[in-house]
């Protein structure tokens, strides 16, 4: 069972930056895919960015060029650098991990961290 703990959420003005961290309870080198999801009030949870075990990345169109996902296997931590933040980025951000073992997928979630973009 992998435990994930997010941190770094805060209130920030439009145009500002934040870096979210997701610390895992064990080595992340064997985690196939890690990702950041977000959920705004009244909306469905959406995948924002993902990174594979070989550091291939993907982003939802609305954050391309502004957000950067990365992982540090030595620190068992994943990051989301968010620049040029917009009010529509306001949401609870969740860390996610997917592990594939013998054709079976195990999925883990963090508790979430609030990001609020407002003047």
Explain what this protein looks like in three dimensions.
- With 119 residues, this protein is mostly beta strands.
- Helices cover 0% and strands 54% of the residues.
- It has no helices and eleven strands.
- It has strands at 4-7, 11-12, 18-24, 33-39, 46-52, 57-59, 67-72, 77-82, 91-101, 104-109, 113-117.
- The termini are far apart.
- The model has no long low-confidence stretch (mean pLDDT 96).
List the helices and strands and how they pair.
Blueprint: E1 4-7, E2 11-12, E3 18-24, E4 33-39, E5 46-52, E6 57-59, E7 67-72, E8 77-82, E9 91-101, E10 104-109, E11 113-117
Parallel strand pairs: 2-11
Antiparallel strand pairs: 1-3, 3-8, 4-5, 4-9, 5-6, 7-8, 9-10, 9-11
Please estimate the helix content: under 10%
Helix segment count? Answer: 0
C-alpha-based Rg, rounded: 14 Å
* Distance linking N and C termini: 40 Å
Low-confidence stretches: none
Order of helices and strands: EEEEEEEEEEE
Task: Let me know the average pLDDT.
Answer: 96
Biggest β-sheet strands, sense, barrel: 7 strands, mixed
Name the beta content range: over 45%
Brief characterization of the structure:
This protein has 119 residues and is mainly beta.
Offer a few descriptive terms.
single chain; 119 residues; 7-stranded mixed beta sheet; mainly beta; 4-stranded antiparallel beta sheet; 0% helix
